[in-house]
Amino acid sequence: MKILVCISKTPDTTSKVSFKDNNTKFEEAGVQWIINPYDEWYALVKAIELKEKDTSIQLHLITVGGADCDPVIRKALALGGDEATRINATSDDSYYIATQIAEIAKQVNYDLVLTGKETIDYNSSSVGGMLAELLNLPYISLAVKLELNNSAAIVTREIEGGEETDEVSTPVVVSCQKGVAEQRIPNMRGIMAARTKPLKVVEPVVIDALTSILNYELPPPKAGVQLIAADNMQELVRLLHEEAKVI
After folding, report:
1. Could you say which of 90, 140, 162, 200 is the most buried, measured as most Cβ atoms within 10 Å of its Cβ?
2. Does a structural domain hold residue 196?
3. Taking the model in full, what pTM does it have?
4. pLDDT in tens, 208-219
């Protein structure tokens, strides 16, 4: 069996967000980059767990990005990937990214393709579904449990008000979220091994993106907290009636 895990690079959540060029580009200077947590903690670690149960599984990683993505993909290899492919292109368009990944996936015929449910920077949750359509495969989103049973995948997914469990024949594309696996930290052996694991760089196929970003804007700053003395109940009631805003 062959598993493909889609990896993306995102800013660390502690990074200070700012924009440049009249708010049309994200300011990358000084930003700490990490593996998108949904890709790392859930999709990748779940694939590693499956490989630990069946050592015949080949675990491949793929990302779309420039050379600055190499440290991120190397970390993913240190966690447990066997080899990785970086498609040498940069884009914020989900369709463009999904198409580039699909072109590679079609050449290998993977049994299972895993993505995180979304990236923490754009939160679009769209690459997984687009990828499944481009590969003409079934798609199950928001997985909180995933197990393999021969040529079938047993997937429990989150739905409104509860969970549902589906059984689907492989190959299949699944997006993963909290619950499907637990975060891991690469050990020194994995870090050293990652230096020699194959990282293939390929050029992208020519395709037009469907969307483009016109500009960014920060949310309005949060208002300060107003403290009321514990014995001044009348003032608290007045403020709640006259000045409090429902968000």
Report:
1. 140
2. yes
3. 0.86
4. 999 988 999 888
